[in-house]
């Protein structure tokens, strides 16, 4: 029996609010869209379940522009949660409000940050107004010659620019630091860029560090992602969009195009004119993603039952690294202590073909040793553990002098999929697109949001 042919302008593979950001405006413009919820293609939890104020404001402006009310009030789908960061045993607390975060940074890192006499009310006002202007300018910027740095400098309040310049100057001055202080500075930047930008680096261009500076001051928002996506899916379908919770089992390739998609247990063949993949680490038979072989770390999530947890660390969330862990197989982790267990995400060096069974014991030993280092007074007894790979990917950037580079007009270079005609010959696919960390998204989530809007403007 011949399968029914289903024609679509776009098949979007990956079920998250970013895929619906793209689908809903295109449906309104008359495009026929299907969103596929395939577990093998998506962003990881760290990417979709958290955001900064700048991200939320961009989404809000985008929702107002495209008449998607749910996105315009995205902050109603979030809670603010501050985090403890540990650099070795030195801890600092960020994520509640800009002034308190900057005061904490100057208190713990006076060598890296300038003191300020701005009042808390003025500081917070300058910060939120600057982010509001940044979001607007990034969304509506039409000057092709404008770099990301240009937009930051014309959008951020002069008083905050002075404080940023003070921090950025340390990248040039670090050559005069003592060895210990230089290692500490590198580890601090590594920790902040990894957590806030999904980029493992100890340097960065001026615009990357400017974004990092603003990110460190932001409230940290925990997104109720499932609730938001459920409501966006309803809007998508109400405008005539199609949704399928089915895995792809076969791709039909014709010349340099992807011409068809077979879905598991689906009586039909999808014939999309274009296919867009959303997610951290897409693995597709006979296709290769440009940049996918770059050095990267993958995230492993887990839950460990403990024999006991002292009351003073219950409900505490911390993110940890140290100068001696940079470059190791497990350089950073985050942990939340619950009543009788701990939930963690740990970065692990990505090797093709790695299975959890191969690295589980080493990973747990590393985590146990780090927890004992942080809390030598506690006897952490691991009773039972559950681990799994997530789809969070963190690219490594070893350009130690990136702060001397000139900023590009755009921070993102799009990756492309190639189909394999033979063991050594690959041909670029014209109608397959990708949004995820392998696009060199050096500003994390914010890069994805800005570049998606640029791309959507071109195709609409």
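-> sequence recovered:
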């Amino acid at each position: 029996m011949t399968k029914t042919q289903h024609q679509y302008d776009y098949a979007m593979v990956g079920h998250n609010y970013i895929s619906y950001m793209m689908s809903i405006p295109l449906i309104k413009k008359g495009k026929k869209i299907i969103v596929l919820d395939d577990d093998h293609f998506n962003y990881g939890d760290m990417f979709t379940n958290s955001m900064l104020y700048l991200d939320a404001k961009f989404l809000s402006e985008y929702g107002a522009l495209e008449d998607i009310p749910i996105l315009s009030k995205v902050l109603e789908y979030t809670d603010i949660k501050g985090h403890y960061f540990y650099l070795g045993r030195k801890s600092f607390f960020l994520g509640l409000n800009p002034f308190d975060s900057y005061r904490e940074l100057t208190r713990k890192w006076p060598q890296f940050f300038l003191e300020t006499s701005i009042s808390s009310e003025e500081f917070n006002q300058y910060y939120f107004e600057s982010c509001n202007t940044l979001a607007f300018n990034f969304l509506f910027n039409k000057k092709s010659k404008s770099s990301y740095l240009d937009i930051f400098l014309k959008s951020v309040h002069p008083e905050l620019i002075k404080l940023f310049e003070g921090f950025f100057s340390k990248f040039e001055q670090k050559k005069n630091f003592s060895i210990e202080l230089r290692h500490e500075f590198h580890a601090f930047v590594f920790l902040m860029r990894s957590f806030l930008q999904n980029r493992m680096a100890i340097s960065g261009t001026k615009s990357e560090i400017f974004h990092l500076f603003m990110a460190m001051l932001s409230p940290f928002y925990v997104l109720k992602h499932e609730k938001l996506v459920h409501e966006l899916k309803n809007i998508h379908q109400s405008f005539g969009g199609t949704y399928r919770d089915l895995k792809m089992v076969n791709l039909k390739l014709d010349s340099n195009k992807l011409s068809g998609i077979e879905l598991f247990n689906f009586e039909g063949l999808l014939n999309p004119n274009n296919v867009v993949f959303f997610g951290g680490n897409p693995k597709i038979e006979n296709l290769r993603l440009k940049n996918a072989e770059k050095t990267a770390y993958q995230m492993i999530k887990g839950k460990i039952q403990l024999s006991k947890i002292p009351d003073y660390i219950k409900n505490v969330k911390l993110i940890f690294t140290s100068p001696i862990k940079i470059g190791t197989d497990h350089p950073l982790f985050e942990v939340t202590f619950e009543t009788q267990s701990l939930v963690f995400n740990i970065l692990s060096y990505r090797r093709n073909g790695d299975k959890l069974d191969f690295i589980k014991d080493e990973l747990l030993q590393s985590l146990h040793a780090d927890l004992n280092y942080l809390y030598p007074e506690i006897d952490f007894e691991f009773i039972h553990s559950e681990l799994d790979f997530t789809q969070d990917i963190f690219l490594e950037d070893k350009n130690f002098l990136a702060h001397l580079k000139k900023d590009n007009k755009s921070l993102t270079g799009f990756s492309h999929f190639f189909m394999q005609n033979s063991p050594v010959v690959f041909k670029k696919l014209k109608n397959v697109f990708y949004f995820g960390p392998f696009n060199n998204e050096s500003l994390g989530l914010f890069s994805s949001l800005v570049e998606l809007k640029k791309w959507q403007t071109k195709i609409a």
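The first helix runs from residue 17 to 28.
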